Amino acid sequence: MRRRHWFCSSLFAMSMAVVGCSGESDKWTAERPKSIPASGTVQFDKRPVEGATVVFQPDGGGHTRAATGVTDSSGNFKLQTYDAGDGAVPGKFKVTITKVTSTSTATSQESKSNDTAAPKTEWVIPKKYGNVMTSGLTADVKEGDENKFTFDLQK
Question: Which run of H or of E encompasses 101?
Fold first, then answer.
């Protein structure tokens, strides 16, 4: 009988802990700024870019949440702020887009004798687009708009 009482008490305590934790999560979710769907396309020299990271960084206006996305094989991306594909908080943004590849510069013989050789980094998209100060890219996410953005990048 004692064992059953201990088990029931423990089960009740664990269930209350789970309920308590979920309540905190709901409070945080309810108080965060609302995000709205936002997506777009990235092209470089008129060709879609796959695997580029797109970041919408707040440009003032009171909101402080960045939104990010990664392009697919067609150059399309969907932004997310809190959850996958939820979009961006309405407001003005400065945009950065990066795609970098890394390759080893050492020959196979060199790599056997020197495992600390730094990989060679190649910017697939010009480096200027990866810096908020030099990209020149902006976006304005507005409630009630379609919020589809096209970025045609040039050399």
Answer: strand 100-103
Residue type, 4: R
Its pTM stands at: 0.73
Tokens at 24, concatenated: 């905190």
Distance CA 34, CA 55 (A): 18
Please say whether the beta carbons of 93 and 137 come within 8 A.
Answer: no
Question: What are the φ/ψ torsions at residue 85 (nearest 5 degrees)?
Answer: 75, 10
Residues 6+ apart with CB under 8 A from 14: none
- CA-CA distance, 152 to 149, in Å (whole number)? 10
| Residue 5 banded pLDDT, cuts 50, 70, 90 | very low
Q: How far is the C-alpha of 143 from the C-alpha of 140, rounded, in Å?
A: 10
